[in-house]
Every structure is written in structure tokens, then in C-alpha cells.
Write a structure and sequence with these properties.
five-stranded antiparallel β-sheet, 5 strands, elongated
Length: 92
């Protein structure tokens, strides 16, 4: 059994996609915070899915995980955009 090495905070690059082992999903790194990193899940456009993750719970995402993440973000971004565009406007 070979355990993956724990990533160090200085190895984390903002904007890169990492796989969150604990959540079992790919996430984008958006900034360091002590010995942890702030990540975003798929709700990238609304900034509601931010969390702090220990570096021991993330690894660099492989090509398939990155592609799946980007596909879901594009799809979610388009749906969010269309929803805002087509939603009735509130009049004050």
C-alpha cells in the first residue's frame, strides 16, 4: 500500500484544480490560509461554495478530474447566466 504524499502549502497554486479526497470531488484553489487552502467547488460563479481545506485532504487533480470539473463549471455557469437573464426583474 503506497500512501500519497501530503501536499505542502507552498506547492498549491491559486487557480489550479485539486482533488479533495475528503469530499471526493475536484475543486479550484483560490488562496492560502495558514496551513490550509481556500477552495471553491462547482458553484464558482456565485462564490457560495468556498471552504477551507487542509492540505492533507487534497492532491493535484488528474486530467479526467480537471475535465469533469471544467465541464460542470461551464454548464453551471451557463445555467446561472441564463437564469439571471430570464428571471423577472424586481421593480423598487
Amino acid at each position: 500500500l503506497i500512501l500519497p504524499s501530503v501536499m505542502k502549502l507552498k506547492q498549491i497554486k491559486n487557480g489550479s484544480i485539486y482533488y479533495n479526497i475528503k469530499e471526493e470531488r475536484a475543486e479550484r484553489a483560490i488562496g492560502p490560509l495558514g496551513s490550509r487552502v481556500v477552495t471553491e467547488g462547482l458553484d464558482f460563479f456565485n462564490r457560495k461554495d468556498q471552504k477551507i481545506v487542509s492540505t492533507k485532504h487534497i492532491r493535484l487533480a488528474n486530467n479526467a478530474e480537471v475535465e469533469k470539473y471544467l465541464t460542470q463549471v461551464r454548464k453551471g455557469g451557463l445555467i446561472t447566466f441564463l437564469g439571471k437573464l430570464l428571471s423577472p426583474k424586481k421593480i423598487a
